[in-house]
Specification:
six-stranded mixed sheet, Ser/Thr_Kinases-Pseudokinases, Transferase(Phosphotransferase), domain 1, Phosphorylase Kinase, domain 1, Prot_kinase_dom, alpha+beta, ATP binding, Kinase-like domain-containing protein, two-stranded antiparallel ribbon, 372 residues
Length: 372
């Protein structure tokens, strides 16, 4: 775990602000410490693009709390690529707030990725990303870590398949010692918070699973759950009474059944993170994941060649009972892509059809001790 001087960063660019932190993109001049296997020596990956996460109101934390944060980040640097990596910590000289150094994901978070790219995301890609997310959540739960703020904004997306299609971020930080909170305080975005938590029970692994179900719904529909509702007391009451987002039927067989299990009102009846990963992996992983990199790269190249032969026609219509199981009077915009020449029939553009209910090398960092 490193404490990095702030002067080591250049081209610092503000990206976004969350409930407890500000996010910046930057270049780390020296870069993180890595282990070169061939040379059998430590080296630095210079001029690396990273993210700086400034934790609000952290300048006055005690030495004990800072050491807890350092230990927290050190424990999390050894996970696979399905969980966002922490490289070290620095301090912003203007506010004196502490800043976490993490990996940069070029496609941003899942919320904005869905918003910007939904109509071009195939089912095979959706399932690949869910497979990564489920594996990352399994790793956290195996270490008895509960995310407690699990939603699409805390899932990062990369175009680098060797890195990871999706990685979980911000796990536990919103409930860290920096906030001086207690176990009874609720964090998160209401539609993703499990009903038992809204009713005052403690966060559990099952509450993360509920959130995973909402993420499945979001990837299926292109909308955040209850996007058309105010996040208020009335919505909380209805969620506790059993309301869930409307079911869309244009999903692979078994997908909806698994999603409903995830958001079951009884936490004990929800699957584990491993069960979810295993379900996806049984029908999607192994031999299919091997060729995914080639398929996506080929598809993107093919799309760029054919893009000039496509027209986009926006059609506004109401979703009927064949699409949604319950009444929904909100107009939906459907983007229909029509080829001016021939329809694409090769394997690159076919959506995956199956019943999902049918049954690396990591860099090495040097521990740097310092006394706060």
């Amino acid at each position: 775990m490193e404490f990095v001087p702030y002067a080591e960063f250049k081209n610092i660019e503000f990206i976004a602000e969350g409930g407890f932190s500000k996010i910046y993109k930057a270049i780390w001049i020296d870069g993180p410490i890595t282990w070169e296997i061939e040379k059998r020596m430590y080296n630095r990956d210079g001029n690396k693009t990273i993210v700086l996460k400034e934790i609000n109101n952290s300048k006055n934390i005690s030495s004990k709390e800072l050491n807890e944060l350092i230990i927290y980040c050190s424990l999390r640097k050894t996970y696979t690529n399905d969980i966002n990596r922490y490289y070290g910590i620095t301090q912003y000289p203007v506010t004196l707030n502490y800043v976490l150094i993490t990996d940069y994901y070029d496609l941003g978070d899942l919320t904005h990725y869905i918003k910007n790219k939904f109509f071009s995301i195939t089912w095979i890609e959706k399932l690949a990303r869910l497979l990564n997310i489920a594996f990352g959540l399994t790793e956290l739960h195996n270490d008895n870590i509960i995310h407690k703020d699990f939603h699409s904004g805390n899932i990062l997306i990369s175009s680098n398949i060797a890195k990871s299609l999706a990685a979980i971020s911000d796990f536990g930080l919103s409930k860290s010692s920096l906030n001086n909170d207690d176990d009874n305080e609720i964090y998160g975005i209401i539609p993703y918070v499990a009903p038992e938590v809204l009713q005052g029970q403690k966060y559990t692994k099952a509450s993360d699973i509920y959130s995973f179900g909402m993420i499945m719904w979001e990837l299926m529909t292109g909308r955040r759950p209850f996007w058309d509702r105010n996040h208020d007391v009335d919505l909380i009451i209805e969620i506790c009474d059993g309301i869930r987002p409307p079911i869309v039927t244009n999903a692979p067989e078994g997908y909806i059944k698994l999603m409903k299990k995830c958001w079951h009102s009884d936490p004990n009846k929800r699957p584990s993170a491993y069960d979810i990963w295993d379900t996806f992996n049984q029908r999607y992983g192994e031999e299919k994941i091997i060729s995914l990199s080639t398929m996506i790269k080929s598809a993107n190249f093919e799309r760029s060649l054919r893009s000039q032969n496509f027209t986009l026609e926006l059609k506004k219509r109401k979703l009927n009972d064949n699409l949604i199981d319950e009444d929904d009077n909100n107009d939906k915009i459907i983007i229909k892509i029509e080829s001016l020449e021939n329809k694409i029939t090769d394997y690159l553009t076919k959506e995956l059809e199956f019943d999902i209910e049918d049954k690396g090398a990591e860099y090495v960092t040097r521990d740097i001790g310092f006394d706060i």
